[in-house]
Specification:
The structure is a single chain. By secondary structure, this protein is an alpha+beta fold. It has a single domain, classed as 3-Layer(aba) Sandwich (Aminopeptidase). The protein is 33% helix and 30% strand. The chain contains four helices and six strands, in the order ααβββαβαββ. Strands 1-2-3-4-6-5 form a six-stranded mixed sheet. A hairpin with a 5-residue loop joins strand 1 and strand 2.
């Protein structure tokens, strides 16, 4: 199975009510510094690209861990690898959007040094940002 199909299947397994099209993956792969990191045994992944509005920022597009592996450090390792890669490429910030319904992601992000930059009470959308440091 190729990496696009693994990404599609893992995303749909990890995020409730989310249907990821292969066209969307192909579209994102064309963005500068598209990055995809899988965990060792494909129990999770993190993917992102250069922020379209800020060249100093690497944007996390999708970040998922299978339910049975949550709370076991898989996501933390993925995030740390993503941060290290961002730092090595010269990025100053990492940003991601999430939804208020994903409380675990918000809490984990805050514990890992992200700040809430904005919250849309109508959509429940939360923008998180972290300064990348040595």
């Amino acid at each position: 199975m190729n990496r696009r199909m693994i990404l599609k299947n893992l995303t749909e397994e990890c995020i409730e009510r989310y249907n990821l099209s292969l066209n969307k993956i192909i579209e994102k792969e064309k963005i500068k510094d598209f990055t995809l990191i899988f965990s060792k045994d494909n129990t999770g992944f993190i993917t992102g690209y250069q922020d379209l509005e800020d060249k100093d920022c690497l944007f996390i597009w999708l970040y998922c861990v299978k339910k049975d592996y949550r709370g076991k450090g898989v996501g933390l390792k993925l995030l740390k690898n993503f941060e290290k890669m961002a730092l090595n490429k010269g990025y100053k910030f990492i940003r991601t959007y999430t939804e208020n319904r994903f409380k675990g992601k918000i809490i984990r992000s805050l514990k890992e040094g992200f700040d809430i930059k904005s919250f849309n009470s109508f959509t429940g959308r939360v923008l998180l940002e972290k300064e990348v440091k040595v």
